[in-house]
Amino acid sequence: MPSPRAASGHAAESRFGNSDATVQSDIRVVLPSIRVPTLILHHTDSAIPVANAHYAAEHIPIARYLELEGEDHLPLTHDSDRIAGEIEEFLTGARGARRPNRMLATIRPNLNERIARTMARRAPAIARLSARALRR
Known about the structure:
Layout: H1 4-16, H2 20-24, E1 38-43, H3 50-59, E2 63-68, H4 80-92, H5 103-135
Parallel strand pairs: 1-2
């Protein structure tokens, strides 16, 4: 893998600014210590060299690498639906809109009504107990 400075590429420097923190960062040594499933998404024509993504995927023990068509590296500016779908599938194991669980929404109004009826029925007894407690 190229050095961190060379790996950043001139295109990345001109596009994202020449920040010493970005250009000087070398995290290769910590990649093998990442012990959680990791999704690495990379666009084919990104300003960030594809070799960096390949290297990360090869050195993170539980990594999944996915290369997407296109040139943008920023997920909010290009292909955001596809990226969101890939992330959803990675996290949940499935993709696409699921039917929401509406059971709680149906039960809750009924539960609230039952509580209100019970409180109304018991209000006189609660008032008597409260009055007794205040007299002591």
